[in-house]
Amino acid sequence: GGPRPLPGQEVSVKVLGALEDGGLVERDPRLIFVPGHGDVVQALELGVPTMQPGEVSFFLAAFPYAYGRPGSREPDVPPEAPLLFEVTLLEVRDGPDPQPLPPAVRLCLGSQRRERGNFHFARGDFAAALRSYRLSLRALDGPITGETG
Asked: β-pairing, 9-18 with 83-94?
């Protein structure tokens, strides 16, 4: 039990993802992400916020909610492959606030978000790319602290 994740909160999940033939394509004992930031497949983005800590859920994801029309990490995930995810919500905590972070850390976070946006853009998911680019700018924007000019 416990409260479901709220927008902007960070979650830790244990996740297993398998193809229809049972081939395991995703295994992470502690995946950390902020739902809505576009860092994971849509099945997790949409499903995890409905869970409570300690809950185990199964998500059968059609290809648009998994790795999309082109698939990913070939040959692990073929094009248009539906996936079955087993997800355990381990922890919910407040998301990181990039503003108090040192500039070098904010730059790294911004770069990670930009790369994620590039990934979405290359796949033709322009809405997700735009969301990632905005998150990148948010990580970079803000006062420079601890530096002298």
From this structure: antiparallel
* More confident site: 93 or 71: 93
Q: Show Cβ contacts of residue 149 under 8 Å, excluding neighbours closer than 6 positions.
A: none
- Do residues 48 and 5 touch, judged by C-beta distance below 8 A? yes
Residues listed for the chain: 149
**Domains recognised in the chain with CATH numbers:** 1-95 (3.10.50.40), 98-148 (no CATH)
* Distance between CA atoms of residues 144 and 141, nearest Å: 9
Say whether pTM exceeds 0.85. no
3-state secondary structure 77-107: ECCCCCEEEEEEEEEEEECCCCCCCCHHHHH
User: What does the pLDDT look like over 34-52, one tens digit per residue?
Assistant: 898 888 889 999 999 999 9
First to last CA, the chain: 50
